[in-house]
């Protein structure tokens, strides 16, 4: 029993050393440029449209839950402008998709008009 407790203690102390030692300085942080800030705010939109005609490409940034958890727990949430940029990005996505839908509707309307003309000419 005693050795088990010691092992557990070692484990805990080892973990503490990692957090407070030199490693902590080098530890990755959610503000690192390679971390996806959209993911921190909620989700990364790049995954929404994979294999569709609106595919916006793959996001090459990190999507790690531990960054998101650290961000959620930090007092910097809502302080860094990530949410504002996320919303701006989503709004741009929506505008682009709306345009695409509008163009599709216009194309459909034109082909319907063309079909009606052909029919009328035949009759
Ligand atoms: Zn991303």
Automatic annotation (TrEMBL):
Q: Region Disordered: what ranges? A: 103-123
UniProt-recorded Gene Ontology molecular function terms: mRNA binding
- Which domain of life does the protein's organism represent? Eukaryota
Task: Identify the InterPro entries for this entry.
Answer: Luc7-rel
GO cellular component, as recorded: U1 snRNP
A GO biological process held by the record: mRNA splice site recognition
Q: Which family does it belong to?
A: Belongs to the Luc7 family.
Its protein name is Uncharacterized protein
């Amino acid at each position: 029993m005693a050795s088990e407790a010691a092992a557990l203690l070692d484990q805990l102390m080892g973990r503490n050393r990692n957090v407070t030692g030199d490693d902590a300085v080098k530890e990755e942080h959610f503000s690192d440029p390679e971390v996806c800030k959209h993911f921190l705010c909620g989700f990364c939109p790049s995954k929404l449209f994979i294999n569709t005609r609106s595919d916006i490409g793959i996001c090459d940034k990190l999507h790690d839950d531990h960054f998101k958890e650290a961000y959620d727990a930090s007092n910097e949430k809502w302080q860094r402008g990530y949410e504002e940029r996320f919303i701006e990005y989503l709004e741009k996505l929506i505008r682009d998709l709306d345009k695409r839908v509008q163009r599709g509707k216009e194309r459909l309307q034109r082909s319907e008009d063309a079909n009606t003309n052909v029919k009328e000419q035949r009759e």
